[in-house]
Protein 1
Amino acid sequence: MEVMTTAVVSTTTAGEHAQGKGSHMNRTIMHALHRVWISGLVMLAVLPMAGWAQSSPPGQPGEGDGPVNAMCPVTTDEPIDPRFIVEYEGNVVGFCCRKCRTKFEQDPGAYLHNLPVTFTQDEREHAHDHADDEHDGGAAPAVNSLTSQPLASADDEHAHSHETGERSRLAVWIGKLHPPATHLPIGLLIGAVIAELGVITTHRSWFRHTAGFCLALAAIGAVVAATLGWFNGGFVLWDDDWVQATHRWLGSATAGLSLVALILFARAIRPGAPSGAVTAYRVGLFVTTGLVGMTGFFGGALVYGIDHYAW
């Protein structure tokens, strides 16, 4: 009887010890997640402010390597936006929008007379001749040197880029939150992939919980970032700039696929779920993560050009 009692007590003690150890581990994980959550909120608050602090005001020329002009040389009544710049003959030139920057790159000499700096003699003569043509009213329509198609006027393209009559200042301001909002879903989707690879290689269940946590937050963040992107680029189905159009629809597709991957994850973790459900979830997760990388590439191309990763 004493032996049985001792065995029961030992078993009970061992069970309590294991339970206490498990509770301690859960508390440790929760504390770690809490610290990560707080750190993420701090980063989301600090990074946008740091970016705003480093950018020069649109109404003034930048110092050092900043733009030499305060007003757009293409649409001369608009202040420059520091996001849209190009280096020309050793000078950084700023523009009010992406369309104006594209027009300048296609025919720089047509707009040099609107800049407060001097360039080579040939460029100055080109700019002078262009100004005379505009004054005489006999200028031929500008032609794209690559496609030989006539280009739209600055006023026409500017109307597409600056929808001040159709978009309120609040909508434009909301759109400016799009760039910082994209970092959260990108990082979390990559974290979900790493966690899922941990499940594949170690078969530890807590990796699966980590993957689900990252994927759930990533899906929410992707939908928010995509919505802000539509505010940023305007609510149009197709853009004149193919890079922006590609970025727009890749981002929208990424947000949709992240929700699909989350639904597939919920099906995969159900008790008795078939192996096919797990495979479908993993395919959805990996495809979504690859797509977010492509979306980020085209997002960078909007600011730095399509060859910004050229060797």
Protein 2
Amino acid sequence: MHVWHGFSPPQEHPPSNWATSHACPLRVSAHRPRKAPNTTHTPTLGPLRLAVIIAAAGASRRFASHATEIQRSKLDEDLGGRPVLQRAVELFSGLSQTVQTIVAGPADEQAMSAFKERHADRLSLLGCTIVPGGREHRYQTVQAALAHLRPEVTHVAIHDAARPCTPAEVIERVLTTAEQHPAVIPVIPVADTLKRIDPAPLEQTSPDPLAAILGAAPSGPPRHRVEQTVDRTHLVAVQTPQVFEVSLLRRAYAQPNLDSTDDAQLIERLGEPVITVMGDPKNLKLTRPEDLTLIRAIMGVRAPEAKPAHLRF
């Protein structure tokens, strides 16, 4: 989950002052002077002809670093007999607006070969095109996928491959609003207190005298000093899918500076408005192994039974 000016895990219920009207989406406000919008841009209104880009090129580093069992991609995890990646694709495959689905996988040739071996058969049945994504950054993955858009596409939905349980109501809200606004993102309010910390970890001393004598480094997660509390007023956590009118998205990706953590940030950099609609706390992104328990509970599926030891190899 991408958070502007901080991070907060999803909450079960939005606060009472949160605007829930679907007909009144909120404009994203910036903390710096906005550029004048480009008045030459005319959004395409009416029914969408949607291309869906599933960003699946990540290396699952955070997931792997927390895993305690066999190391594997989080996109391969089982959700009721289907992998996470397939579940994410299926969110859009049945929509009348969808005319194209692009899955942007690993950039490395060997990794892509293994990716196709695991997923190509299932994804081909869903009408997906698999293309290499970026090597280092998410924006490289989206940029690579944009080169494969069909001419008839009017809008692009960009979705995290690791969000397999996005409620249909969220997708419907985003797409309906995208018929009137060229850049739309789902968000949820930030509920927890946010604090900015000193990036330098504190020097820790080992409580074990013998370890100290032997010069062993103290174990455990790093500790940081709090610098300040961040005002969370008007802060929201951003989810996907994010939907953009195709010509606006191409202009955003034609900029020289593409450094960003989500695609809406590039639209903001153009000085164009980004419209928010209500997301959903259940629209979880699989980041750590413990997230699987929550996602399976939301989807009503069980974890696969472990194989007997003699069948694991």
